[in-house]
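Quick one: structure tokens for this chain, please?
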Amino acid sequence: MVSNIEVKKTVRRNYWFERLIALIALLNFALVLFDLSYIPGRDFYLQVLPKITQVYDPVKGITPHPETQNYLRIVNQLEEQVLQTGLKSDSVANLLDKLRLLSNQMIGDNPFDVANKSGTLAKIKHEVRLRTNQTSARAAFNTFWSQDYLSQRGWQSEISFFNTQIRPLIHSNYYRDIGRFGNFIDWFWLIDLPFIAIFALEFLARTYYISRHRPDLNWLEAILKRWYDLFLLLPFWRWLRIIPLSIRLYQTQLLNLQPLRSQLNHDFAVNFAGEITEMVGIQVIDQLQNAIRKGDLTRWLLHPESRKPYIQVNGTNEVKAIATRLVNVSVYDVLPKIQPDLEAWVHHSLTSTLNQSPLYQQIQNLPGLGNLPQQLTEKLARDLSQSVSDQLAQAISDPVGGELTSRLITNFRDALETELRKTHNIQEIQSLLIDMLEEIKINYVKGITDAGMEKVLAEAEHIHKIIYR
């Protein structure tokens, strides 16, 4: 009793440890996603969560770009100078000269290119051109940073336009340090290293535990058994950690992947089963066509002794057994049902034959005997058809009749084979069979394509639900 309680406690501790590692992996993957999205989404973070950029910019080696920051610093000085001396002062004119010069340098040097933000500079030039109604970006900036333009359009409205539309775009530019090997500085590996260490220790402990409790596995085989956990240890392609993370969250019941798993299995089964069914069907029909072309099918059906090596299931000649069965069904079941039709056919044949006889015509002309030939013909047809049916049934049930029937089947088979061996018969039958199989093959594949495997899988799922219920 104590041992069972200890086992349950151990299992429960392992379960919570598994959940803890899964949550750590989830946290790590969230950081990985944030790191991957930081550079493309830095403008968003800068506008919505500027404090995050202050903390995370050093991780990516990001520093303010000196040229664009100096540009904004001069604009700040201009705003202060206008407040102190007004727009028409010489100090303001000097600052405007500097801004025109810096604007031309910014357009020519493109300091946004290092951060791969040339599109931002293009937007800046476009906005200023629209504002000043100029076709050239240089002329637009020269116009914008002039005393006449600012006086005419109003200082407050123009500086407000710059601060709301242009300043955020210029402020989003940055400089990113480059390392010794020509790559951008990225210190995220220092954040990621503790997680990798945890995952590595857990991976080694887990695989060692598996190899100790599974005598059929060595340590390398245990490592291969947990191959997906190796993605947690890679310092590159970190997005692949979604694979072990999803598995761990599913195993610890923190994430329900059963609907997704069922759908993936369903889609895979539909495609795979459809292709396999088509290939198997086409292969079988192709084999039949080849057998017909080579004459193997005729030899196989008419000469069972030639099927070597061939495994007999019950030691029975199936072709002979099928022929015997068809004869029995025809005599005992089919003939009684078509007795009236057979009698009518015999009566018609007798009447047609007798009508050609002069004696039969003279008897019909004798007084009182006109209907006698008709009656005799009907009775003869009825007796003859019944006699044939009874004699066939008796011949089959009689040992001698059975032997005669067997001899009849054998002679029929030999005669059929003789006729089938004739070139024109073989070629015609083979051509017809091959064409028929080709039509079956085409319609078989078309049927699978039209109907698909959805119905089959739906029936299988329905059966599984009935079994589980």
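Residues 295-421 form one domain.
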